[in-house]
Amino acid sequence: MATRSMDDWLDAYGESHQNPTNKKVHFVCVPVIFFTIIGFLWAIPAPFFTSFWACLALVFVTLYYARLSLPIAAGMLVFSLLCLAGLNLIASAGISVWLFSLVVFILAWIGQFWGHKVEGKKPSFFEDIQYLMIGPAWIMGFLYRKWGIKY
User: What residues does each domain of the chain span?
Assistant: First the structure.
């Protein structure tokens, strides 16, 4: 089985994200969903430190991205660290990270499905579950192209 390159993944993902409204929805909702998934992992009781499960998962997420593109992996690592910092602020404010993540996760997915209704195409992850990991990289790839960063 041939391995797909990051460009192959991003191009394939982009095929079902052509509508300008759907793109805008995804630019907001995809990072929010990524953030809330880290929040769910953060909320799992951990043996060592609060964010243990989130950090452990992010190690594997970073390795997944590194297999496809080191620059994308670096950008996603920075974004992941910002997510952890944001979750720490939420927890420090006495807000339930789990409940916050649940509410925002549901709202973001409603946005995603609405965006795909506008697009007229089903979400990419219905074709391949890996697209759930490619969505955040697609946003990062867009930013990199805009900033002139090669990936």
Answer: 22-147
What residue spans of the chain are helical by DSSP H?
6-15, 20-42, 52-68, 70-92, 97-119, 131-147
Query: pLDDT in tens for each of the 151 residues of the chain?
Result: 458 899 999 998 888 899 999 999 999 999 999 999 999 999 999 988 999 999 999 999 999 999 999 999 999 999 999 999 999 999 999 999 999 999 999 999 999 999 999 998 887 777 767 888 999 999 999 999 999 999 9
Name the phi and psi angles at 92, rounded to 5.
Answer: -65, -25
Give the C-alpha separation, 28 to 5, whole Å.
25
Closest by Cα among 139, 50, 140, 136 to 87 = 50
Contact 34, 136 (CB under 8 A): yes
Task: Give the tokens for residue 7.
Answer: 């460009």
Q: What are the angstrom distances between the C-alpha of 124 and each of 9, 96, 121, 129?
A: 11, 31, 9, 8
Q: Quick one: tokens of 78?
A: 């920075």
